[in-house]
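Quick log. Single chain, no ligands specified.
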Amino acid sequence: MQERVLFVALILISAYLLKRLRVFREVDADPFINYVIYFSLPALVFREVRRVDLGGEAFGVVVIAWAVIVGSVVLSWAVGKLIGMERKTLRAFVLVSSFGNTAFLGYPFTYALFGEEGLRFAVLYDQIGSFLLVVSLGLIISTGRLSPKEVVTFPPFVALILGLLLRDTTIPEAFGVFLKVVGNSLIPAVLFAIGLRFSPHHILNSLRYTLLSLGIKMVLVPALLLLLLKISSLNTLGYKVALLETSMPPMVMAGVLAVRYGLDERLALSAITLGMALSFFISPLWVSMI
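-> predicted structure:
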């Protein structure tokens, strides 16, 4: 996992330094964001959703993902309204408090702790649970309105539906290679965009709300899920993976949506960056408790 941390840090730092050297500007992050939303993310989603295995214990993992995210949205929205957050800050706060980095960090964490067998549950939690809601409910939160047209025409959502419909269809090998190469470009592109947008002042300027969002995302909600699993005596591999994924830090896609729709990106980027660092200390602790 150390290599994964270094990989993330090197891309973020490189983008930030290139911005400081004026090779790139902060506004140059926008083309990278568009590349992710309209090209690399749809390719990754279409490829991965065709490979997930549905049924059995997997259903429970997906239900947990949905319940955790919807519950987190309601809780964080109530907390934000209670303390009087401004609208754009509130939407960003809900995004980073509810949607976890269940793919880029969740997959390596799962592999490190549970091996190949655990990965199939991580993919289910991420693709059918987390991702399905971020491209629907997450989009509604970002835009501040219920727009079915915008949801159903959102490229990653279209790719998800097509992937599910064409699960049993054989695709040409060349197209499979295309999907793999384009999908694999997602992480560098999105991290580079975040690095261009990032400033050290983000964390300091948004520290109060950042810590509050991480407290909900990485401490309170996993604690409630752990209690439920203990009461229900659910301690098999799938549920352990679900607990681990629930404790993941804020999703990078939450930052993408915050930038894309003009929300409080300082809060979003601060929560994503600090959450990544804290996850290597906090997340494994939850698994050890089940």
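The chain is about 80% helix and 0% strand.
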